[in-house]
Amino acid sequence: MKMRAVPGARLAHLPQVQRMDPAVRRDIEVVSSILPFKVNNYVLDELIDWDRAPHDPIYRLTFPDRAMLPEAVFGEVAELIDREAPRAELRGAVHRARSQLNPHPGDQLQANVPQAGTESLLGLQHKYRETVLVFPGQGQTCHAYCGYCFRWAQFIGVAELKQAVPGPETALAYLAGHHEVSDVLFTGGDPMIMSTDRLRGYLAPLLEPRFAHIRNIRVGTKALSYWPYRFTTDDDAADLLRLLEQATAAGRHVAVMAHFSHVRELETAACREAIRRIRDTGAVIRAQAPLVRHVNDDPAVWAEMWRTMTSLGVAPYYMFVERDTGASQYFELPLHRAMAIYREALSSVSGLERTARGPVMSASPGKVVVDGTARVAGQDVFCLRFLQARDPRWVGRPFFAKHDEHAVWFDDLKPAFDEPWFWQSDPPRQGS
Ligand SMILES: *Cc1c(COP(=O)(O)O)cnc(C)c1O
Ligand code: SF4
Q1: What is the pLDDT of residues 341-397, one digit of tens each?
Q2: Domain boundaries, the chain
């Protein structure tokens, strides 16, 4: 199977879209001039159920919708497109629209960049003691795009791509000198977009004895959802599987950190074959995704996803809270609602299928899970806990925020009982 990618600008011309309401086609044109979109023949032919579009969950995941933009922003750009305004004018409006959509949430990419002397090692991120993230320069795109992607700005050049390493050398040199690091996570974009040869350049050296401290090698990818042929019929698919096998044979735990947004993605023959082949290498597949409106805001969808994953040998890992960027107003859910969906899904599956932690926010002090709501000393509160933290001493410590039915993200929360957050009176340790 050969991949044919369809960029945002061509979506409105797809035959499947031509059959839809003309108003939908215009909305697609306007929204895709501002936010990045990309699908491919697998997504179009095997994932989306066109009889149900635009209400189909995979269509919602990958196609533009008018409600992804604030009404005023949509209106301004639509007017320019309708009257075929001069290019420069349109470009200006698009630029303004993008900058209103919080393109750099929490500046996660700039934060946590390690230093070597006075030099910043751009393309690496070392936030939690035991884990280093590597952003390979050639892996900063994906086989298709998710409408909720928090890296959207880099796909359209608003965020510069400088937060990626040009090759393996920087990452390897850093890791060789940091024996506290046990986990390396290759991320993107999607590192599986790279050729196997390129990926081998990053992975194979980690199997040498000088990297014995790197016990776990993770690769974050949505290829099982957007292009499972990467592991089956692509020219270098067999080579890729051999590379994973070589890593497990060298004693490393290899985790394919898969991103599954909906149970549909697990149902195709291609995906199932890809999962089988990856598991045959000894690598483990763990799954994570954000909980988002229009796609998977239904406990039955998560329950079915966790059951299906478990029966296919994929371990549920995280349920994330959608980040406050890009089309977030379209996808976001109040935290109390996210928590209710998580609990209802959890309670309807077996213990083995309950391994996803969530709902989790990747916030600046750490990964915060919402454990529930409670009434403490006469106040309604959210019960929160760090699963990961800048300072390992914070991990596992329960803390409380004022209950707020409108809160959708960590920054919306206020500490309960009019005290500061506990870590504000316990500053992080310096160094490492
Ligand atoms: C989630 C995350 C990790 C990995 O955390 P685990 O709990 O080990 O999965 C590492 N670094 C960053 C910046 C993260 O957001
Ligand atoms: S697969 Fe990940 S990086 Fe790629 S578009 Fe989706 S959320 Fe963004």
Answers
A1: 999 999 999 999 999 999 999 999 999 999 999 999 999 999 999 999 999 999 999
A2: 5-99, 108-318
**CATH value of 108-318 in 3.40.190.10, 3.40.50.720, 3.20.20.70, 3.50.50.60:** 3.20.20.70
Backbone angles phi, psi at 344, to 5 degrees: -65, -40
Per residue in 300-310, pLDDT (tens digit) is 999 999 999 99
Identify whether the C-beta of residue 291 lies closer than 8 Å to the C-beta of residue 359.
yes
Residue nearest to atom 5 of ligand 1 (CA): 388
Task: Assign 425 a pLDDT band (cuts: 50, 70, 90).
Answer: confident
Residue 430 has pLDDT above 90, yes or no: no
**Ligand nearest 182 Cα, by number?**
1
What is residue 432's predicted lDDT score, i.e. its pLDDT? 45
Q: Specify the DSSP element, H or E, that contains 218.
A: strand 216-221
Going by C-alpha positions, the residue among 156, 164, 229, 162 that lies closest to residue 191 is: 164
pLDDT tens digits for range 223-252: 999 999 999 999 999 999 999 999 999 999
Give distance in angstroms: CA of 155 to centre of ligand 2: 10
**Is the minimum distance from the CB of 362 to ligand 1 under 6 angstroms?**
yes
Burial class (CB in 10 A: 0-12, 13-18, 19+), 389: buried
Q: Is 190 in the pocket of ligand 2 (CB under 6 A)?
A: yes
pLDDT beyond 80 at 136? yes
User: Distance (Å, rounded) from C-alpha 273 to C-alpha 184?
Assistant: 26
Q: Long-range pairs for 245-252 at CB < 8 Å and ≥24 separation? A: 245/281, 245/282, 245/283, 246/204, 246/207, 247/203, 247/206, 247/207, 247/217, 247/283, 248/281, 248/282, 248/283, 249/282, 250/207, 252/206, 252/207, 252/214, 252/215, 252/216, 252/217
Residue-level pLDDT at 109 = 59
Measure 410 CA to ligand 2 centroid, in angstroms.
21
131 lines ligand 1 (CB under 6 A): yes
Ligand 2 centre distance from Cα of residue 149 (Å): 5
CA dist 254 and 245 (Å) reads 9
Q: Is the pLDDT of residue 270 over 70?
A: yes
User: Residue 317: CB within 6 Å of ligand 1?
Assistant: no
Contact in structure between 56 and 20 (CB atoms under 8 Å): no
